[in-house]
Amino acid sequence: MNTTLTITPDQRAAIHCQLTQHLSGIGDVSLAYLGGQYEGAERLAGEYAQDLALLADLGWAPDDARESFELTMPADELERALRRLHSDAEAGLSNPEARRAEAENAEVLTAYARTAEVCSDLIAELSARGEGDAP
To answer: Chain centroid to CA 56: how far?
Structure first.
């Protein structure tokens, strides 16, 4: 089922940053495929397909002047993408090496925390609506 979930520019910025960071690894699909890891390549391709669908809703440019953003992808796929982005943000917050390296750049840690918060809130909203995957 497709859903329409409307988010604010602040929520969009948090998701967009983490999403584009995740998309930087899209070449891993090709590497897995060429390495004969077909199941892994298929899994990654599915993740990146969800990421690209979400990016289509958010807009590609880092800055977008819209006052709100409608997320129109299927609720279950949206929730999976949000859970993956939440997990990535949490990993960034909890990785000791990353924390040391990023301690000088508090903005990075703040961005991870904001992304985790936004993803949690949107997952909860999907759940309250009875949409998305079961926990």
So the answer is: 13
